[in-house]
Amino acid sequence: MHRFPDRLRPFTLVLAVSAFAVLSASWPVSGTGISWTALLVFALLAVATGRERVPVGDGVELTPGFMVSMAAVVVFHSSAVVAGPMIVAALTAVHPDDLRPGRRGWVVLNGSIFALGAAAAAIVYDALPERIVQQMPLGIVAVVPVAVVICVVEAVLVAASHRVEQGRSIQGALAEVAPSILRALPFAVVGLFLGQLYSSVGWPVVLLLVVPIVLQRDLFESYRRVRDANEATMRVLIRALEAKDSYTAGHAERVARYAQFIGEEFGFRRARLERLRHAALMHDIGKLVVPNQLLNKPGRLTAEEFAVVRAHEAVSVEMLGHVDFLRPIARAAGGDHSRFDPNDRARLVESSIIAVADAYDAMTSTRSYRRALRQEVAFDELRAKAGTQFDPACVEALVRAIEWRGERHGDGHEVASHPWATAPPGAGVGSAGLGDLIDGIEPT
To answer: What are the tens digits of pLDDT across the range 132-150?
Structure first.
């Protein structure tokens, strides 16, 4: 994690004061008869497990200590209802790397978020009827809303911190953060269940608590290693393409991001979203075999040149088919993205999604032969070609997702600079990727 940004300090102070106020208000009542043994055991577990962090995507990290926090919600149900879980949850934010100068703010920020999330979960759990909580297996089902509450509260607070730090709209930040936070939901349920066992059996069940925590850590570590190796492979391929065509820098990542927006609108599950992202990242890889002068030709392509450019689709399929983890997405990544045919039953929806995402980024990005178009123009062009060039459902899904997130792209909103594009004209279809903005120009 990077150095703690100054712009987050006021926000962190507000959260810390809020957490301390909730803790102070709950302590006089819930502190009566507190089990100091349980508090010590879970505090030690929180600090020990909080040292491990596993990224689960979108800048969100999950620690095995999350399960300890959930177990504490149950264990302190009869004493220190709110204060106990808050203390334990806050301690899971203590990580050696964040104790260094310039980074300690992360401990306060994350500790406050975890503590407030645990407080909300404890309040909900305390409100559940005792007869339901104590009855198995109904008690396990009853903890699901508790797990949902902590995930939602933490998702909102993390999204708010992204809003303060990066200036994103709260909707957009929440849309990106929420899926990653919600991946913790099963572990929250397991933690609550283990807390119920601790309340029934006592401290020996700590061994049962530690085993799944260790397994969880090893499972995520194994998954992370495989995922990192796969991501490294794709980065090498993308960098090779960027070295050939400077426009490609950042293009693949943006297309993958827009494609994911559409997939989320369609309700794709996590595994399918991941495959879609990989396909979008690799959609242009076949252009490694296309001559540079054709990729950025400012005028129309001849029939022969067009055939050469189109050959990159078959090359993409061939290349990706030789990489084990990319083979399942080869057809979507290297498929024909040029035209939408509603009667083509063999066409993959992923190909249609990538076509829309690719065209949108092409129109809202500066190229050597044309400045970026305004976002409204890009939307209008996508809608004008919906049903002929693009899948109408994909077009509307992308427009809806971008507008809901409050994002702005295109002319006046570009993040990347383009030193290679010297005074490009304000208009011009170009030859490689804008779509058929001008009648008669075939897209590539």
So the answer is: 766 666 666 777 788 888 8
